[in-house]
């Protein structure tokens, strides 16, 4: 399972905007910006990288004209997003401040359910076409930021009845 702590909302914003890579290995600060670049006070830190989903499958991307999407999702206390899939991979970050935990339950091909709890500041990758549902079992709203590596015209979510 891929899980990592993100220390701040600023790091999350950099991650979601693609300044920090979401696939491959962490990079050194020298790889992030040329040493010849103008001096800056900005600190760029590789926070998360991964090439496998929560189920351990290798990432796959849909074919077509690439399109990145960013969503902020607020799940109220006791709230649930029912069983669904996504046709494109997603990087999910549970907001580090003012947020509760997220329970992610994946339904395996044999019908078994595998659950993982993600605490504020943690992130994970959801793969394409992997059925799951998410819940907020806590007493406070859970806020997640979702970056989707999709293509133009492809829906973000496909509901399972």
Automatic annotation (TrEMBL):
Keyword set includes Ion transport: no
First and last residue of the signal peptide: 1-23
Pfam families, A to Z: Cupin_2
Keyword Signal belongs to the record: yes
Top-level taxon of origin: Bacteria
Classification via Gene3D superfamilies: Jelly Rolls
Domain Cupin type-2 positions: 72-148
Alphabetically ordered keywords of this record: Signal
InterPro entries per record: Cupin_2 (IPR013096), RmlC-like_jellyroll (IPR014710), RmlC_Cupin_sf (IPR011051)
Protein name: Cupin type-2 domain-containing protein
């Amino acid at each position: 399972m891929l899980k990592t702590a993100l220390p701040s909302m600023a790091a999350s914003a950099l991650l979601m905007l693609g300044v920090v890579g979401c696939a491959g290995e962490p990079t050194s600060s020298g790889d992030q910006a040329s040493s010849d670049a103008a001096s800056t006070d900005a600190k760029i830190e590789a926070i998360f990288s991964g090439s496998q989903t929560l189920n351990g499958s290798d990432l796959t991307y849909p074919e077509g004209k690439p399109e990145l999407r960013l969503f902020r999702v607020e799940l109220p206390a006791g709230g649930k997003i029912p069983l669904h899939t996504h046709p494109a991979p997603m990087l999910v970050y549970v907001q580090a401040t003012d947020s509760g935990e997220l329970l992610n339950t994946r339904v395996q091909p044999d019908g078994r359910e595998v659950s993982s709890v993600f605490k504020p500041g943690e992130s994970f990758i959801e793969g394409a076409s992997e059925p799951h549902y998410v819940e907020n079992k806590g007493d406070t709203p859970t806020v997640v930021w979702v970056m989707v590596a999709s293509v133009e015209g492809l829906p973000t979510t496909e509901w399972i009845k």
